[in-house]
Amino acid sequence: MSGKTPPLVLHVMHHLVTGGLENGVVNLINHMPESAFRHGIVCIEDDSDFRDRIVRRDVDVIALKRSRIGVWAMRRELYKLCRTLQPAILHTRNQSALDALLPARLAGVRHAVHGEHGWDVDNLRGDRWKPALLRQLHSPLIERYVTVSQNLQRYLSGRVGIAPARISQIYNGVDTTRFTPRENGPRCAMPAAYARDDALIIGTVGRMQPVKDQATLLRAFAGLAPRHARARLVMAGSGPLAADLRALAAALGVGERVWFPGTLHDVAVVMRNIDVFVLPSLSEGISNTLLEAMASGVPALATSVGGNPELVQQGLTGRLFPPGDVAALGRLLDDYLTHPALRLAHGAAARRVAVERFSLPTMVAHYQSLYQQLCH
């Protein structure tokens, strides 16, 4: 491609806000060589200041606000955008972005990739017929599929009926140079009660919404708090349930031992300062925060849903528990808090696995190779 303008990949998603899917797209754009591809982002609904995490200055972010202008007006805008920008590849992600496929085809876009990154809140197990039917109806417009987990790959081939040869499974990558284990020394970026050397910090990071089920973690923590006076809980993130979770912490009698820092500007600093990471979600594709915890050398307790069992190696890098099971999570937390050698061993193994299997360069190389195959 020397001497030529690199082809444009137009990424289409529902929102550009704080989230795993969105973080993956931003990481992909930031780390793919500029000489390989140009990038643009179209939001079916809206963007946010999350766009500021894109370090390349040549990336346009366009919000179409479908709920305000209507679906047909949005499709007309997409058609005009594709006629103007002439992307080489349209890369849609999840159900909402399927709306972009037909306008792009009519506008002359030759190559379309569709990514599946996780389940919608009203379809946590992928068993509803309407989402599967929508994917079947749009499949003639899609050249290649990408799933971030084997679980989603099985859904596309088994439930939707997509030929396995059309599906590439690419794990999200984590920046293992930014997310690193804590070196010896005091904790930082935490309140005084959490920065103490003898504190035992349990942490979770995620948008505060029903599918993330932080309430289960709060109840498990409240159950073990009387036995572990040094234990503290960090619940980072924002969202519609933030006030409810604060109220629940107070009602359970642990409000003084739970820190709600809101949306973190530097997740890496806090991640390396916790002792155990918990992902209590009811559903997941592939969790970026779980990968970030692993890269930070932190053992993880995660629900046995979606792609979590593909990341957490049971008894080696962490442990799995049934979604919503307060008692099971409490027992696992108690075990980690009681046995520091176990925490350290699982954390070291998690770091090793993150570096070997889930590095950011590996993810970027897979996507770059896929795009190059389509353009040649």
Describe the structure.
The chain is of the alpha/beta class and 376 residues long. 39% of the residues lie in helices and 17% in strands. The chain is built from 15 helices and 13 strands. The strands form two sheets. Strands 3-2-1-4-5-6-7 form a seven-stranded parallel sheet, sandwiched between helices. The chain has a six-stranded parallel sheet with strand order 10-9-8-11-12-13, sandwiched between helices. Helix 8 packs across helix 13 and helix 11 crosses helix 14. The protein is elongated and about 65 Å long. The termini are close together. The model has no long low-confidence stretch (mean pLDDT 93).
What's the short version?
This protein is α/β, with parallel strands linked by helices. It has helices at residues 20-31, 66-69, 71-85, 101-106, 129-138, 150-160, 192-195, 214-224, 242-251, 267-271, 288-295, 308-311, 326-338, 340-357, 360-375, and strands spanning 8-13, 38-43, 60-63, 89-93, 111-116, 144-147, 167-169, 200-205, 231-236, 258-262, 276-279, 300-303, 318-321.
